[in-house]
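Sample entry (470 residues):
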Amino acid sequence: MPTNNFQNKPQEPPKSKKKTFHMLLDELNSDMQIVAYTGFSSQYKTLDVSTIKWLILNFKKTTAIVMRQKKMLAIPIEKLKVKDRLEKIHHFPPELKKLSYVTPSLIRELENRNFTEFEVILIKKTEDSIVHQWENKKKEKQKKVVDNVSKYITSANVLAQKHETLSNLIEEVMDNARENKFSYRDIEEQAEELIANNSLETLSAFTSLKQSNQTYTHCIDVGSIFQHVYWRLVEKKRLRSHFTDKKSSLLASFLHDFGKSQIPKEILDSNVKFAPDSKEAKIIRTHPELGAKLLHQFSFSTTAINISHYHHVKYTPTLANSYPFIKDYKEVLYETRLLSIIDIYQALIGKRSYKKSWNPASAIQFIGKLAAIEFDPVVWLDFVSIIGKYPTNSYVELSDGSFGFVTPLPYQETEKPIVIVVENKDNEILKHNPIIDLSIELDISIVNTHDSIGRFKDKTLDVFLNLNAI
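Predicted structure, serialized as tokens:
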């Protein structure tokens, strides 16, 4: 980093003459000494009071590099401020050697505290030895990544037909409900199969790859994204789920718009975007209450009913686009708050006949601006911690001029994902598609995001399903 970009830079101790190496958490070993922490999870990207207190307590007398109001500063850790973006912690005093000498217990603690990247020096082995070891690990990781991406694409090919089948089943259930007939056994069987095969994350990725109709595919997309994100959060945050099992949560999310079965089909399936004060829009706004009544009638859980009833209620319930009216937002369960975010996220990235779709990364940025206004800010951060800055199948432009899809591998960095390259810098579609792990290839970065459907039109899904990972 250029020195002249820093302001208020404290006196630095003499720099080590030893060569430093960039390492990821899983590459650390006892032959290394950490000289700087350089990679952090999202909780360190916009510092809050509790995180600052923890950092000051545990990193006394170190130097922090932060981004503050678009300026890069090197400051004593004790001078951190709320909303600083943490970029680096270095210059460890002798009394903090426990945070720099790598041990198994330190690695466990670093993982628990979401530190991800480091600058290290070698304290035992030669540079040639560590470089050779690192190159071998890199090759092993790359092979594993290619294998996983290939499995993902194969699974996506199998699930493409399943996605359409589920959408048709939702339409059938809603059509039957209009005639006072209700049976969801077929959907229940499909849900059981998806859960058993661990297919929900792959299914959720179809949202940004194909045009969706306004209701039926939307229900499947919202349900699959909700299921993937929600149960990851339950595990990660040790949440107490209001659902009895995964099947009940998937059915509830699939049927969150079940009240639309009582909306005239000529309105529901219309390609017209109705004005907010139109007769049709007012009819559509009755669907949450209608859905809650139907799910209660058919003995669904109170959680499923809460989701159907309140998924359009905003964090500020007095907003004009919040409905139905409630006095206290506390009536809205955590599960409903999460689904309401996913509901608008899918509506933005899902291609509709009357609107242009957003790319996933842009949708994330847009919804983020509505946190604490329309959406619970804590639940929003939970959602982003799982979905990432660049959600699965985001179509991104890289700094080398190539373009590709972000893959859904669970262990990747949310800001430095793994990308499968589709087009080279000359916009030529490749027959063989390289995998780039941006957490390893540090000279390549994401410079922009694009709408894949805008690029490939109705062939987007075919382009994706025919990728050949190498």
